[in-house]
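Hey,
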Amino acid sequence: MQKSNAFVDVLKNIRELVGAEFYSDSLEDRLCYSYDATIEEALPDAIVSPGATEDIARIMKWANEAKMPVIPRGAGTGLSGGSVPVKGGLVMILTRLNRILEINEADFYMVVEPGVITNTINEVMAKKGFMYPPDPASMKTSTIGGNVAENAGGLRGLKYGVTKNYVMALEVVTPTGEIIKTGTHTVKTATGYNLTQLFVGSEGTLGVITKITLKFIPAPEHKESMMAIFKDMNQAAQTVADIIKSGVVPATLEFLDHITINAVEDFERIGLPRDADALLLIETDGMKEAAIREIASVEEICKKNDAFKTQKAKTEKEREIVWAARRVAFSALARVRPTTILEDATVPRSRIPDMVRGVNQIARKYNIMIGNFGHAGDGNLHPTILTDERDKEEFARVEKAIEEIFDLALKLDGTLSGEHGIGYSKAKFLENEVGKDGLAVMKRVKDALDPNGILNPGKMSL
């Protein structure tokens, strides 16, 4: 498509602003930034890597005047097409903004830039005896800015919550180029609208996040980890519900089904039982006596639900092996078939058994392979469809199965997404959950902040 003179002039101005080293419109580079971790793909017109908030503000002002789409991007690990440039335009990479600016141990907060790798935050805080709890599976590559934009979750979400629970304040560049600050460094604030939480989870559609204030907590004194193995998936799902009902709140409570277990074992060879129909990975933490008492209670519940084997990690190395099985689940499943579609429909924790049974019925109905794993303790499962998008007949069945998985989650009082976001890949389903009026309100908020619709267009039906 022929671009307007204003569009071309803006790209020239951006190149001069950041320098040739941090700007590209070569086809090779554009292809590299045409996709994220989903199967969605679209070609941008150019890529820029600004190094300062002021530069981002100038770029947004120019882009708004030229009505040029701008797509903020971190490491590209998103799983809903959130950083795919579906309308073309400018991909704005934020990984140059990668400094930890402040760690305030007295008031338990830190100030970071959006390009800091999530695991870097975890490692820095661990050395100081603290913990930043959100731990998405992609934490070794994902950026904290992306985590905030998507309201990322993780394995510890059951006990500690998700990203939104730890964001205290933000610096944001609006689509029209203003630099605003939201929130405070105080424990409490009741001043005006909660703009901080408006931007958290907004998927890059309302503003470009340039600075983040995060709270952290003291690291737990002790951890206990165990694996429970089941011959029947329904028993494992019921065990999850029973553990929550008992009043014990594990730090993590993860679920892997038979397909996922074998994919992980093929990938890592860590000794998982190939004949198991499902396994649970469970960790308790806190004061040592409490963590030990809680894991004993959990083990008893597992045995009452006919777990044929329970295995506690006796050393830190054994603990790392247990959790390696969960963290590589998606990578392992992705090797099974050419195309992998990872969903994150989430239901109330008590409905986990119903969701697991329903997904299995859908897999049989459409004769497709679905591996199931996820954060069972907070109801966030990851039905992972293994397919080949080149097989048009099979892929048509896959698309029908996805619709039924979403319908099932909503019928069980659940949600379309627990942590991956709506992005582009789920945009057409959003109205099913929030309703026509709810979607209209979201659009009014979008229009107020982004009158020309330039920031990450085509996402969340906005």
